[in-house]
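Hello,

Our lab assistant flagged a job as stuck in the queue for most of the afternoon. It eventually completed. Since we weren't sure the result was trustworthy after the delay, we are filing this so someone can double-check. Below is the sequence as submitted and the structure that was eventually returned. Let us know if re-running is recommended.
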Amino acid sequence: PQITTYDIPLNDTSSAGLGITLKGKTSIVDGQSMDMGIFIKSVLTGGAASRDNRLRPNDQILVI
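-- returned structure --
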């Protein structure tokens, strides 16, 4: 899969912060639950991510 890195400034949003909700994904492989990572559940209106307009639901978060 393609990996794209975004730098999203937070300093221009007073109290809204990054403005995303997160979810964890798991998968069952051979009867074992495997952690698939942390993903964006939603982008909240008014937050830095919404204003930046590049993050989307189901994008995986690799580094904060």
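-- support follow-up --
The delay was a queue issue, not a problem with the job. The result is valid. The chain has one domain: 1-64. The longest helix spans residues 48-52.
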